[in-house]
Amino acid sequence: MIQKGLKGIVATETSISHIDGENGELFYRGFGIRDIAEGYSFEEAAYLLWFGYYPDASQLALLKEQLKANRELPVCVKEIIDRLPLNMDLMSVIRTALSAEGGNGEYGWKPKVSQAIRLTALVPTVIGYRKCQLDGNNFCPPRHDLDHVENYLFMLNGKVPIAAHIEALEAYMILTLEHGMNASTFSARVTASSESDMVSAITSAVGTMKGPLHGGAPSGVIELMDEIALVGDAEAVIREKILQGEKLMGFGHRVYKTHDPRAMALKTKLLKLAGEDEWLDLAMTVEDTAVKILAELKPGRSLYTNVEFYAAAIMKAINMDTELFTPTFTASRIVGWTAHVLEQAENNTIYRPQAKYIGTFK
pLDDT, tens digit, for every residue of 6-48? Predict the structure, then answer.
């Protein structure tokens, strides 16, 4: 029996994460995602995925210093970005910049955690450098007194962000670090299974993330919130869309049959920031209204907000252009990709599925 897209096929064993779609649970290394997002920083969550346990104070300090030390773009990478066409999409820029980084002779088999840390540190700088270039602004070099997420926002906007925006984006990035054997992670593991280098595996993942069926920006959610803000009546807008048969963007998930735990964790975080940003407040109002109407008009469907819904609210709140949504997703998911590459290398077997021939014989 053929399973197109390998849906439901178990291709490997992993101790990195576990998704329980029926019960709406996501675990990193056995720890529930809600607790991680609530009580730990980006750096601590990344350490957990790379090493399998939380860092102590000295280990955390060392990781932060390693990330800061690897933020600067090599001159050759800057020169390559400078020469790229201005109409090249940002995901292609990231892919090209990482390929250039991989040409320095320091990457090979087997992959190392130090390489994972370096690539994670570089991606936000690539995004910030290119954004400033496109905007015609001088690039704000990374600051070594700022932690990972705060520094990313600083490079994008040229100023230190407010605390509410840092907390909201950090929660989002923690919740999107890793999500099992999705398409981009599978791409990374397939490339690594040939004993290729870490950079090659990650550029494979970036190329996969670029596809709109995987890393597409939640622009539909932004459009919904903009319309509700303009009309001023969430219930009227949502009810009309459902009655007209339109898909309500940001609700429902192909894996989670109940609440998306990442959305729930983001909501918990945003509730603590209530009143600090109008868009975050609007998102919570829209969710409550939509879930009530969906339960009324589509009983038994169990349609709840997914992580894209609150991701869109966060991106809107911090005034992030839609072109930056998927690159920002990439800046977080690179932690999961690199963790999987490291795991693949520890017990490697090359991936070699078969295909059923349906052509004719001449």
Answer: 777 778 899 999 998 888 899 999 999 999 999 999 999 999 9
Task: Count Cα neighbours of 34 within 13 Å in the Cβ-side half-sphere.
Answer: 11
Residues annotated as catalytic (active site), given as ranges = 253, 308
Domain 21-161+178-215+323-346: CATH superfamily, name plus number: Citrate Synthase, domain 1 (1.10.580.10)
H or E element, residue 27: strand 25-28
Tens digit of pLDDT for each residue in 260-311? 888 888 888 777 766 667 777 788 888 888 888 888 888 777 777 788 888 8
Distance, CA of 90 to CA of 130 (rounded, Å): 8
Mean pLDDT, the chain, whole residue set: 89
Cβ neighbors of 111 (< 8 A, separation 6 or more) are 192, 197, 198, 201, 338, 341, 342, 345
Domain ranges of the chain: 21-161+178-215+323-346, 219-317
CA distance 43 to 149: 9
Peptide bond just before 269 cis, omega within 30 deg? no
Q: Domain spanning 219-317 has what CATH number?
A: 1.10.230.10
In sequence order, what are the beta bridge partners of 25? 20
Question: How many Cβ atoms sit within 10 Å of the Cβ of residue 225?
Answer: 23
> What is the residue type of 113?
V
Per the listing, tokens 């090493």 go with 51
Share of the chain above pLDDT 70, in %: 95
Q: How many residues does the chain have?
A: 362
**Alpha carbon separation from 328 to 35, 105, 216 (Å, rounded):** 22, 27, 11
Question: What is 107-168 written as a DSSP string?
Answer: --SSP-HHHHHHHHHHHHHHHHHHHHHHHT----PPPTTS-HHHHHHHHHHSSPPPHHHHHH
